[in-house]
Every structure is written in C-alpha cells, then in structure tokens.
Design brief:
By secondary structure, the chain is α/β, with parallel strands linked by helices. It has a single domain, classed as Rossmann fold, CATH 3.40.50. The chain contains 7 helices and 7 strands, in the order ααβαβαββαβααββ. It starts with a helix and ends with a strand.
Length: about 210
Amino acid sequence: MSFANATQFWNERFNKEEFIFGKEPNEYLVQQAPQYLKPGSSILCIADGEGRNGVWLAKQGMLVTGFDVSDIALAKANKFASENQVRIQYSLCDTDGFDWQAKSYDAVIGIFIQFADPDMRARIFEKVHQALKPGGIFILQGYTAKQLEYKTGGPSLIEHLYTEEMIRELCHGFEILRLQCYEKELSEGARHAGMSALLGMVAKKIS
C-alpha cells in the first residue's frame, strides 16, 4: 500500500468526531510504564493515531515524539494534546518515511501497529533497534492469530498477526524482558471492543 493509499485508508477511518480507539491509553502500556519508563525519558510512539498513548505518556512527564500516516488523526492528536496541556512532536509520515535517528530514544512504543506486513514488520524492528539508546526499551502490544476467531479488532490477514515465535525471531539485539500471549476483554473505543487474543512484549536493546 502506498503512502497516499494508506493515508486515504486511515483518513476515512479517523474522519469522525469520536476517537475510534478511545481517549484512554492502551492498558498494557499503562501496566508496563511504571516499571520501565521514567519521567523525562524521550519516547517515540509509532503510528500514534489520535494520540491516546502519546498524550498519556506526555502527561506522565515523558518527552514524546510520534508519527502517523493520517493527517486527520494527527489533527485530532494535536488538539487532544493541547486540551491536556502537553506538547508532542508529531510528523506526518509512514514507518518507512520517518527519520529514525540513531540512539535517540529511551523507549519506543508500538501499540497495535499491525498495518505492517511481514517485510515492513522486520524493517520496523530494525529501525526501532537503531533508534533506541543502549539499554532502551521497546514496548509492543498486538493481536495474535486467534484474534481471527474473535473479530473484535485488528486486521483480517493472518500474516499481519503475531505469534510468540515470530516476535522472538525479530528481536535481534534485544533481551526480551516480558513476552506473553493472553486473552482479555478490551474496551478501547469502537474499534477494539470485546474479548481479544493479545500479545504483550517488553524488550531491552542490548547490542
């Protein structure tokens, strides 16, 4: 999917008054943040959409950078940030177009970034590793293949969904601190609602 097509696809989804994934931050991120993220840390949010995660992190005292392919989503995110009296440095781009500056971030956050096919997913993991400072943290949440049975959110293509083995294979140069597959009721806006098959990971850059 080209940038123009991806922008059009996501703009059509985000072009409504409501926040399609809600305004509350992702539950897994909220659970992991106190242990692994510190106020004043530089954080990159991949495809931050309407800003629910970036704004929450900024409210915890983090220095947040983010990007998304949808200008409509980013307009909502910037307004949401302003309403919450925080500032986030957002860029309009896709994962391949973002300027992944080496050793720039204390943590990178990837929450439901399952627009990525296997090739793009491998590139994202490489870019995340490149952009993290030594010892930096990568927090990832996504759907597993069992999500195709629940149909409560996420892509319908199995190659875009996660397995524990797949994530382990992608983690070159990382130490996996947490990795779990589990099932849980989600309530994150209209797009992520109901029983869900999930994967959560926290990994640390070690080389």
